[in-house]
Amino acid sequence: MSERTDLPLPDYDHLTTGDLAGRVRTLPAGPLRELIAHEEAHGNRLPVLEVLRTRLADVEDGAPLSGGDPAAARPEQAPAPDGGSDVSEAGAQVNNQPLRHGVAGQTPNRDIRGR
Q1: Can you tell me the distance from the alpha carbon of 106 to that of 100, in angstroms, rounded to the nearest whole number?
Q2: Looking at the domain assignment, is residue 97 inside a domain?
Q3: 114: which DSSP letter?
Q4: Is 9 in contact with 15 (CB distance < 8 Å)?
Q5: Angle between the 29-41 and 46-60 helix axes, to the nearest 10 degrees?
Q6: Which pLDDT value is given to residue 84?
Q7: Which residue has the higher pLDDT, 59 or 10?
Q8: How many domains, in total, are found in the chain?
Q9: Whose CA, among 1, 32, 44, 54, lies 20 to 30 Å from 18?
Q10: Residue 37 structural domain
Q11: Which range, of 34-48, 52-66, 85-99, averages the lowest pLDDT?
């Protein structure tokens, strides 16, 4: 039984089913079997097992492996360099909605930066 850090996909437990389907396309049969055993012992999630078992069957039937590193983070999931949000205040959209008159509490904040 593998520890989570020893899995073929280090971030396995944090992948969505869709991301997992793309990432397992780079794995040969052995690592796929390892992920199946881990999933059966831990989460036992049917949709995840279906993705893994289907891919294993495809590989065993001769399906080619995709190129790339299965452990590489996808750009849209990579954290910001400083560990925070990659959204800057300078790029924030300014609220330019017209003021609503006559309805208490429904006038939007005019400046999201608190000025």
Answers
A1: 7
A2: no
A3: -
A4: yes
A5: 160
A6: 57
A7: 59
A8: 1
A9: 1
A10: 4-60
A11: 85-99
Residue 45 DSSP SS3? coil
Reading the block at residue 87, the tokens are 């959204």
- Compute how many other C-beta atoms are within 10 angstroms of the C-beta atom of residue 91: 7
Q: In this structure, is residue 37 part of a structural domain? A: yes
Q: What is the rounded distance in angstroms from the CA atom of residue 34 to the CA atom of residue 37?
A: 5
Amino acid at 1: M
95 phi and psi, to 5 degrees? -75, 110
CA distance 47 to 24: 14
45 and 19 Cβ atoms separated by less than 8 Å: no
Tokens of 8: 């073929």
Q: Is the pLDDT of residue 62 over 90?
A: yes
Instruction: Evaluate whether residue 112 is within a structural domain.
Output: no
Among 33, 39, 29, smallest CA distance to 65 is for: 29
Query: Quick one: DSSP state of residue 37?
Result: H
Q: Is residue 76 part of a domain?
A: no
Residue with tokens 């017209």: 98
Q: Which of 12, 107, 20 is nearest to 4 (CA)?
A: 12
